[in-house]
Amino acid sequence: MQEKQENSIDDPLVSVVVPSYNHEAYIEECLLSIINQTYKSIEVIVIDDGSKDHSCEILDRMQKQYGFVLVFQENQGVSKTLNKAIRRYAHGKYINCLASDDFMMLDKIEKQVRFLEENPDVDLVFGKVYMVDEKSQIMKDRKIFEPFDEPVKHIPFELLIENNRVPAPSVMFRREIWEKCEGFNEDTVIEDFDLWLKIAYAGKMVYLNDYFACYRWHWQNVSTQVLKIYTATWKLIDSWKDKMSPAIAGKVLARRDSMTFCILARKYKKESLRYLKFNHSYWDAFILRNYLKGLFKLLFLWNHKKEWK
Questions:
Q1: CATH code linked to domain 4-220
Q2: Residues 10-33: b if buried by 16+ CB within 10 A, e if exposed
Q3: pTM, to two decimals
Q4: DSSP letters along 51-89, please?
């Protein structure tokens, strides 16, 4: 797969890491989107994290055909798997991590490498993703990340911590910033957002107004684990409060409280109450609207199919 002797000396190596777990229906499409990239100076590292389906057989067949690094292990979780892949097997100047149910645009790596090479002060670059269903069809009516308006935008820490608008499949970052931030946090289920915050705080990240990947929406997706995700996000943001000014911390935490209450109020009523707070030092229309919607869900929405979003 990696014919390095044919690459231009000016093409830095990119390590593409795929943590694979129970995605037999999607793993081949994922890997082919990497193998068929227009940019050729890449190495592919796949670690199967204890899959119980037929993923291992598919990976074994594809590894024999394309020659990428393939490791099988007992289940350790995404964060530990990513750290292991990068520390032990990755040699690239740039790192690209891709979940085994997602896939890339074929020019993703080429576009992002060129930008990073031309902008050595940038540590991480990202863009937009298409939402796709189980049949890889674009879901035009669904967006999980709100795009920015400007084509190239520096994302400051204060903006990111208030609203994570960085879709993981679209990201590429320098290995040196990953090392500076001591890798992925192995004690959280939102290891990507944790790393983005550390990079935004210690370095520079930039948004490019382009589609770089497809994010799969299906019932097994981790993002459907609402209670775990929102609880972990609140804890992560709270852990940063001492590194923000009191005014910004007050605003960010108040908004996060209201948002978390609103999201959890229908299905996780007891848990949602811990975020229903009226002693915030900061209030705005966003907070008020979330609390009103949340109270409506808390009191009136139980087994109804339609939810007030």
A1: 3.90.550.10
A2: ebbbbbbbbbbbbbbbbbbbbbeb
A3: 0.90
A4: -SSSHHHHHHHHHHHH--EEEEE----HHHHHHHHHHHH
**In angstroms, rounded to a whole number, what is the distance separating the alpha carbons of residues 142 and 241?**
32
The CATH 3.90.550.10 portion of the chain extends over 4-220
Find the DSSP H helices in the chain: 27-35, 55-66, 78-89, 108-118, 157-162, 175-180, 191-202, 226-239, 246-264, 269-272, 285-300
Q: Which of 153, 206, 212, 141 is nearest to 177 (CA)?
A: 206
Please, which pLDDT band fits residue 189 given cuts at 50, 70 and 90? very high
Residue 279 pLDDT: 94
For residue 308, what pLDDT band results from cuts at 50, 70 and 90?
very low
Phi and psi (nearest 5°) for 201? Answer: -75, -40
Query: Please, which contacts does 198-204 make with residues 24 or more away whose CB atoms are closer than 8 Å?
Result: 199/123, 199/124, 199/173, 200/155, 200/156, 200/157, 200/160, 200/161, 201/157, 201/243, 202/123, 202/177, 203/123, 203/124, 203/177, 204/121, 204/122, 204/123, 204/124, 204/154
192-241: pLDDT as tens digits: 999 999 999 999 999 999 999 999 987 665 555 889 999 999 999 999 99
- pLDDT (mean) for 13-33: 97
Cβ(277)–Cβ(257) below 8 Å: yes
Indicate the average pLDDT of the chain.
Answer: 92
Structure-token match 């890491």, residue found: 17
The HSE-up count of residue 243 (CA atoms within 13 Å, CB side) is: 13
The arithmetic mean of pLDDT across residues 32-45, rounded, is 98
d(CA 5, CA 259): 52
